[in-house]
Backbone:
């Protein structure tokens, strides 16, 4: 499969997921999804097979969903915490970059990917050591990490494809 096809699929999937994450809190009554913190990798609640429950169940499995680290819309937290939500947005942006800028080289993509993911890791370590969450920083570094992840995917596809 060609690099462009894979990046296009990643872009479409991530953009659709990001849009649904912002719509989900409005698809239920005010405050229906509040104070849901849990453990990553563990389904902490029972969910129905309906929208938005499916998105919140996904969040329940892959994200801690801590209230203080989440964007609140319609009185509900989003299905993913701020960093995870903006990482999904970053994945879409990172897939879009090489699709729009064909001149990006493999080395540039590798370096940018590593630096952007490192920023996310550094922010995570700083906030963990402080025991606090700064929502704008979570958003920026989440987007950076997601972008870096897609750039690393692009690098890998180009490296493996010999491009």
Residues:
């Amino acid at each position: 499969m060609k690099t462009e096809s894979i990046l296009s699929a990643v872009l479409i999937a991530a953009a659709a997921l990001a849009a649904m994450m912002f719509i989900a809190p409005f698809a239920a009554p005010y405050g229906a999804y509040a104070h849901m913190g849990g453990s990553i990798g563990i389904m902490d609640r029972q969910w129905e097979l309906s929208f938005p429950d499916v998105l919140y169940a996904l969040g329940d499995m892959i994200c801690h969903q801590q209230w203080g680290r989440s964007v609140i819309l319609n009185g509900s937290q989003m299905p993913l915490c701020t960093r995870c939500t903006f990482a999904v947005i970053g994945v879409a942006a990172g897939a879009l970059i090489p699709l729009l800028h064909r001149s990006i080289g493999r080395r540039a993509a590798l370096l940018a990917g590593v630096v952007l993911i490192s920023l996310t890791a550094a922010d995570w370590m700083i906030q963990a050591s402080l025991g606090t969450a700064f929502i704008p920083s979570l958003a920026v570094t989440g987007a950076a990490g997601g972008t870096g992840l897609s750039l690393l995917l692009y690098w890998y596809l180009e490296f493996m494809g010999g491009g």
Helices lie at 3-23, 53-62, 82-100, 106-130, 135-161. The mean pLDDT is 93. The first helix runs from residue 3 to 23. The radius of gyration is 17 Å.
